Structures are given as C-alpha cells and as structure tokens.
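Quick one, probably user error.
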C-alpha cells in the first residue's frame, strides 16, 4: 500500500480508501435515521417497546456491522473484511426506511405504490447478499484478509453467485412474500417464472453450501494455526458461540418482543470478535477471561446451593432467630470463598488456561531448586531459562548487583548471554 502523500503544510493526506469508509457509514446511519423518522410519523400507538425493538434491530444488523466495518477500514484499510462489513450494513439498512411505511399500507389495506412494492420485495430477500458479505466472505478471509489458498477461490466466487441468483431469482419468481403475506408483485408467469424460481432455489442451495464451506475453512485454519493466528481464531470461535447461543435463546422466547430483539442482537458478537482478532487487541487475555468466568461461575454455584439449603433449615431450628442464621451462613460462605476459589481456579486453569498453569508449575519448580543451588552461574542460566519458558520474551539478560562490601574486590558486573 502506497504511503499517503504529504500536504503543503507538512501533514499527510489520508488515503482515498479511508475517505470512502465514512460515506458508507453515513449512508447506513442516514437509512436508520430515516426509518426512525418514518416510525415517529406514522406508527400509532407509538410505544417504548416499538422503539426499543427497532433500535435493537438497527444496532444489531445495519448500524452495528457498519460501525465495526468503519473501525476496521480506518485501522486496517488493506484488509477487505472491514469493507465487507460496511457493505453488509448498508444492504441491511436500505430496507429500514420502507418497513414502517409498508406496514402502514398493509394495515390500512391500501394499494401499494411501486416504491412500496420494491421495498416489500427487497426487504424479503436482502438477507441473502447481506449474509454473504457479512458472514460467508469474512469467514473465508479471517484473520489476515486473504484466502487460505487458491483452492478456496471457487467457494468465494460461488458465494457471490449465490447472492446474485437468490436475490434476482426470488424477486422474479411467482411466490407469496412471507413477511408481508402478499403475492410477489414482480413475479413472472409461465416458463419465465419457473426459470426464476429454479434460479432462486439454486441460489439458496448454493448459499447454504458456501456458508458450510466458510465455517469449515475457519475450522481448517484453526487446526493448522499457531501463535498469534491461533489466538485470533479463538476469539472468532468465542464470538460465534455467543452468537449461536443468543440466536437459540431468541428462538425460544416470545417473538417480536424486547427480549427477543436483544437476544437476536447477540449476532453482533461475531463481527466484534473478528474485529478484535483483526486488530490484535489484547488477544492473550481470552484465556484469562474464560478461566475467570468459569471459575467464578462454579464457585458461585458451589456457595449458593449450600447457602440456600442452610438458611431455611437454620431458620426453622432457631425459631425466630432467622437473621442470626442468615448472618452465620453469610460469614461461612465468605470464609469459604477464598480457598474454594483458589482450588477451583487451579482446576479450571488446567483445562482452559494451560499456559498459565504450566508457567506457575515451572516457577514453583524453580523456587524449589533455588534453595539447593549454590553455583551462581548455573543459577543464572536456569533463571534465564525459566523466564524464557514462562514469559517468552524476545530477549533476556541478567546483570548481577555489584558488591558493596569495603573488603570486596573491585566491583564487576557479570552479564549472561541473551536468550533469544
């Protein structure tokens, strides 16, 4: 990537690609704002639940993806993942201004003008190209923005073809729109409509196949990755697990409610995790985060269950001294928290934070050998080896403190070789 050319005043001009990031985000924001204006103008009765549901939908899909894409394009303009997220957010947002307006026409049983018909068809099928840009292609490119090998090029091309076939074929196929329960106003009759329906079905099947292939690509990358790339992909996996959990929970609760909208908004965990992986922001904290989360969840459960069992029983035994029983149970739980947390922390680290567990064992072993070591040179070499094994620095050196005794010989400083 060429460096920005300096301005006459000495400052550098931002690259053209960076300047294009802001119009994409502003266009998405404008569509969301237009949707809010239409909602305020035509929706009656206008309730808090309606506004929260619309805000959650806008933040989860169009504006959320667009904002993450903006950050990535500004920080990593050469990585196409940010541009894909920005384009996906824009595609989702284009349907927002017409949704409320279209619902008003349908509620009043009025004939749909041409713009409302276009909004109905586009809002029905825009998820196909949006998911291709926001999920499939980023999964093929994560984390460095390049395909794993040339063998994955047909998958990327098939994903783009799936978006075109599904959108065009579905828009022209004679069918009934599920979101609005009306017949497709642009559906073609006869053989042409049958061809359009076949193209739509082929595009949908191709979309499913490329989605599965992109997830398989992430798995293959993870299995062959090491070092920083492995940590990046672990963040992506954690985001995918959180998103799937939110989608499953959202499907289990009543639909079109505030809770379901918030749960469905957890799909944003995937682009957030990808952004962390691409920007390489505190990648090594994931092990510690998972370890501490699991530890405190287990400890809380181990302390809460006995607490809930002891308090009613103690209340019945004391007969009127329930507050004393509650205080005793609370003090007992507080006293057991620290040793129980340390015990559970060690068990969890063995499973979820092996790096920290192995480093702790290495340091403990060195501390035990330190009491028996008398050779200064051997001790220094072993100390450097322990530091290199646990911390893994780029280089490490050891300087000995000069002697200050008046009878000591001339002060010297011994330096051990750097461990690379």
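Nope, works fine. Designed sequence:
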């Amino acid at each position: 990537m060429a460096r920005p050319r300096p301005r006459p005043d000495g400052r550098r001009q931002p690259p053209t690609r960076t300047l294009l990031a802001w119009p994409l985000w502003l266009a998405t924001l404008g569509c969301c704002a237009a949707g809010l204006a239409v909602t305020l103008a035509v929706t009656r009765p206008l309730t808090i639940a309606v506004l929260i549901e619309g805000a959650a939908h806008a933040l989860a899909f169009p504006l959320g993806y667009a904002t993450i894409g903006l950050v990535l394009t500004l920080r990593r303009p050469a990585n196409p993942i940010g541009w894909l997220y920005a384009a996906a957010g824009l595609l989702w947002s284009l349907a927002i201004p017409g949704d409320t307006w279209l619902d008003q026409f349908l509620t009043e049983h009025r004939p749909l003008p041409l713009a409302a018909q276009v909004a109905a068809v586009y809002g029905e099928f825009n998820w196909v190209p949006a998911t291709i840009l926001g999920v499939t292609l980023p999964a093929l490119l994560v984390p460095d923005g390049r395909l794993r090998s040339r063998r994955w090029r047909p998958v990327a091309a098939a994903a783009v073809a799936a978006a075109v076939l599904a959108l065009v074929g579905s828009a022209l196929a004679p069918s009934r729109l599920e979101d609005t329960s009306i017949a497709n106003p642009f559906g073609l009759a006869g053989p042409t409509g049958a061809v359009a329906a076949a193209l739509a079905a082929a595009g949908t099947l191709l979309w499913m196949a490329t989605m599965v292939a992109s997830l398989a690509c992430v798995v293959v990358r993870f299995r062959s990755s090491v070092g920083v790339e492995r940590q990046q992909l672990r963040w992506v996996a954690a985001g995918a697990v959180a998103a799937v959990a939110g989608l499953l929970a959202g499907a289990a609760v009543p639909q079109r409610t505030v809770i379901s909208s918030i749960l469905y908004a957890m799909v944003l965990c995937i682009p957030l995790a990808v952004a962390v992986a691409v920007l390489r922001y505190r990648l090594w904290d994931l092990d510690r985060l998972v370890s501490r989360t699991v530890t405190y969840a287990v400890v809380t459960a181990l302390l809460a269950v006995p607490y809930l069992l002891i308090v009613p029983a103690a209340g019945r035994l004391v007969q009127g001294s329930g507050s004393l029983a509650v205080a005793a149970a609370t003090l007992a739980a507080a006293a057991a928290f620290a040793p129980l947390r340390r015990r559970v922390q060690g068990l969890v680290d063995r499973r979820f934070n092996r790096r920290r567990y192995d480093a702790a064992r290495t340091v403990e072993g060195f501390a035990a050998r330190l009491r028996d070591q008398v050779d200064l040179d051997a001790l220094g070499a072993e100390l450097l080896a322990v530091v290199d094994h646990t911390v893994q620095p780029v280089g490490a050196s050891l300087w000995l403190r000069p002697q200050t005794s008046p009878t000591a010989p001339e002060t010297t400083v011994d330096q051990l070789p750097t461990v690379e």
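The radius of gyration is 30 Å.
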